[in-house]
Structures are given as structure tokens and as C-alpha cells.
Amino acid sequence: MDISLPLTPSRAVADSSTVEIPQYSRRAIAGIWAAAALPMAALSWLVAPALADHLSGEGNVPLIKALLATLTAGLVWQFVLVAVLVGREQRSLRWPVVREALWLRSPRSPRSGRVGGRVWLVVIPLLIASGVEALLASGVPVPASRDFGAFLDSHVGHAFLSGNWAWFAIVVAMALFNTVLGEELLFRGFLLPRMKGAFGRGDWIANGLLFTAYHLHMPWEMPTTLLDTFILAYPSKRYRSAWIGIAVHSAQSVVIVAAVLALVI
Asked: What 3-state class would DSSP assign to 132?
């Protein structure tokens, strides 16, 4: 897979004001997508079932254990991938550089130019839209052995998680790398700012489609994930802030962690 940098990558930078974000070719963008999506698919459909055969537990507990462990590893890999790409591109991993290179700054209103403050209120309707998306997703059939929601509601799930702080820690790590340090950092922090050269004004649409196609490890989520094009990709582009996508996407992680915590304690 080709994840080579553009022909004219940024030079080393002295401070955040001189950070330049280069534009990537479609081939490079596809290579980075593949570097994230293909390992997740392999971990979900090949590695996890093989690992489950060596784990103990009642019912689908072995597969759930394997999926939690392997997909967490895949999300950690995405964080490493972003760090490597930014380091090669910017020749620095200092926070002022990383903040600008990954759009980790407060949202800026495209109309007034205001930064932060009341601009953050845009997150509220986006959270509502994300909640509607979650309701729609709940009606999509999921393979019974991989349905984490059903697992949490089951007697087997209750028995497995009761007092199980070790697996709770893994769930927290998975949530953190999913919506803060993994998927959002890669798709809205790294890829989105670098896609305009290849896709023009439709860069956010292409970003949303790539994010949908990335879910090879959970293909039943693809239909509703298309909505993230408007809930995550477009607002992140409009306000030039990956924190928008991170904040909205993290809402589901908070709900999941809270539900698991309630079972653990």
C-alpha cells in the first residue's frame, strides 16, 4: 500500500504560525486509508476468531474478549500511524506543531471569525444528530456473536463484567483510541485537511465516504455511518477543527463506558 508523502512535503518548522499542511494525492490518501482499514478488517474477521479459540468463557465471551483486545490494538496502530505521518511530514512532534498540523485547535466561525467561546455551541445540535444516528443504527441487524449491546444486556455479559476492572480498562482504552486518539485523529485530524487538493470543495464528502468504507470490520454500521459525513466531516471542515468531530464522536464512547462501568461496579 502506498502511503508516501506528497512530492513537496513541509520542511521543519520553527513554530505553529509557520506550520504548512501539504495536499496529498488521491493515491496517497487511499494508501493511508488502507493502512487503517485493512488491519482493522483483518483483526476483526481473521485474528479475533482465531484468538477466541484460545480464550475461556461462556457463550460468546471468548469472541467478545478477542474483539475488544484486537480492535483496541488496531486503534492504537492508527494513533501510531498518525504520529509517524506527522513526524515525517512536519519533521517535528512538538505540541504547537502537532496542534496545527492536526487541526487540534478551537473551532473558528467562518462567518464572524470568532474562535472558541460560543462557537462551541454548534456541538449541541450535532450531538442530537449523532443520537438520532445511534437510534437508527440500533435497528440494523448485527451478528449475534458480535452484538456488544446485546452482550451488555445478557446474563453472560453481566457475569463477565461484574467486578472485572481489567476488562473495563480495556474498554476505556478502546473508547479513548476510538474517538480521540484513533479514528477521529486520523480521518478528521490528518486526512481531512490534506484532501482539498485531490477533491476540491467536496473534500469533506470524500472524507465521509472514506470513513464509511473504513468500517470493513463492522460493515453493518456502514449505512448509518454515511450520516457522519454531515455530522462529523462537514462541521470539522467548516470550523477548521478536529475537536468538533472528536467531541461529537466521543459522546457514544461516554455512553458505552458508563454502561460497562455500571455492570462492573
From this structure: helix
